[in-house]
Model the fold of this input.
Amino acid sequence: MSTFVADTLNVMNRELKPVWREPMAVVFAMIQPLVFLGLFAPLLPEMADGDSALQWFVPGIVAMTALMGASFTGANLMEEMQSGSHERQLVSPLGRPALLVGRALKEVVPMLMQVAIIVAVVTPFSFDLHLGGVLVAALVLSVFSVGVGALSFALALASKGQDWMFWTVQQTLLFPTLLTAGVLLPVEGAPRWLEVVSNLNPMTYVVDAVRALFAGTFPADVVLRGVLGAGVVAAVGLVVGVRAMRRSS
Amino acid sequence: MTYHRQELTGPAIVTRGLTRHFTSRKQTVEAVSGLDLEIGQGELVAFLGPNGAGKSTTLRMLTTLIAPTSGSASVAGHDVVTAQRDVRRAIGFVGQGNGAGHRQLGRDELVSQGRAHGLSRADARRRAAELVEELDLTAVVDRKVSSLSGGQRRRLDIAMGLVHLPRVLFLDEPSTGLDPQNRANLQELIRRLHAETGSTVVLTTHYLEEADALAGRVIVVDHGRVIADDSAARLKSGLGDLVRLAFGSPGDSARAAARLERIPEARVEVDDTSLDLRVKDGSAMVGDLLADLAADGVPPTRVEVARPTLDDVFLDLTGRSLRETQSTTETTTGTTEIESEVAA
Done:
């Protein structure tokens, strides 16, 4: 067990080295969510209760950033599979589970940096910062990111270094996941089938919880469902990811 | 470098009926078939063979990357299937690609590899510094790996394979993709490391010169089987030297052939006015031979003596030239003559 912890920390620290050295890369990676924020926010109607639309929209963008960043991360492993450094690690005594878990845990760091940037960017505008809620939301999103990251690594391993397969699957899943989670538009009042899909999407609960928390409220049931949604993604991601890593050669 | 490893008794590598199949498009390909090998501690061994001969598959089984379909293998006393972690702890591995991540700094990778092998942070740093010095990486090790040249990356990869003083070091096609200068440097480095550390070194190559110049023992593989296994010198001397003679007319060469065939264990081939004589120690007997032929009234007009090369060995064993089977064309001008100097 202690070997697992040491190995996991080793893998995580190694993965974080480029993040610390080139933090600007983390900013570039979130260009897309920032563009969405800049172009969508002005189009949003006033909320019925007179709240700023940003208050509703920003948490969605935050969740979107977490999903995008973590779902892209398999590309890094893919690059290492092609270059040979993945193979080198497989021959080292590092445990297979640690190779996956260490990588997945690393996803928390760039995600938190991105959340901090978004919050810093929107706070001068009509967005009320509720720090306590944001911090709890960041915790929920951390669990979610670990899960999505693990799934992305599993996809990279399953693609066996074939770029087109990784990107086709990743892109095919990305936007339906975002849209049915109600990130850009509310799903309330949607046709029945869409509502069912939305209810099956664990990210829906993560987004709902993050919205409530960003508004400074702590509805126990919503937050709990968000934690569970993120937890399910993390559990499935880690199980699938570790299995894929064990099969890797 | 300081080397302090536990004494190990028994051979470094043993394989028994080691076999690996691959299935592609419902066809089963036997990449490695029933390999029985024993490699002693401290040996420097080269697996030589054309692309697809099963060299890399063998190495991948010995380094725990893939499991054998049947048979068994142990490395440094540990079974490659049931004791993978022990094998991984004992071996160094330099694969065909780059072990160091392209987005990382060279030194970070060395330290992280040392940590992976259980060194403390301080020890890993000290060991990295030692290797940087040893492999002449001081100028580049604090740069991003992607900015390094091919030769520099290779040295970094080898440094990574050595962090934990491995008992057995595997190198898969270490010089592929390097220019001749870097290839020569790399061979020198491997020879030096082997001499200094006393580690068992196993490498694969499809460069004849490399196997010849480097390895104390050459294992020639083809179609997943070992077809020869001996020192390069003995493999070649078993084949005999090639004495190539030219005569003024086909009649002369035929007469000479009739005479030369009387030499014990000599093989003679005539093609028009030229004659190939393959015979052990041919270079030593060529003086007498010329005198005899002249006395017989068939003096050769041209004489060429070539020591055998590993390619001749491969040709003799398989009927194919190893050079022909290679995708990369190398400069092979005056092959035999040049190699005779190296080999002698």
The radius of gyration of chain B is 24 Å. Chain B touches chain A at residues 60, 63-66, 85, 88-89, 91, 93, 95-105, 108-109, 112-113, 115-118, 157, 160 (CB under 8 Å). Chain B has two domains: 13-235, 239-343.
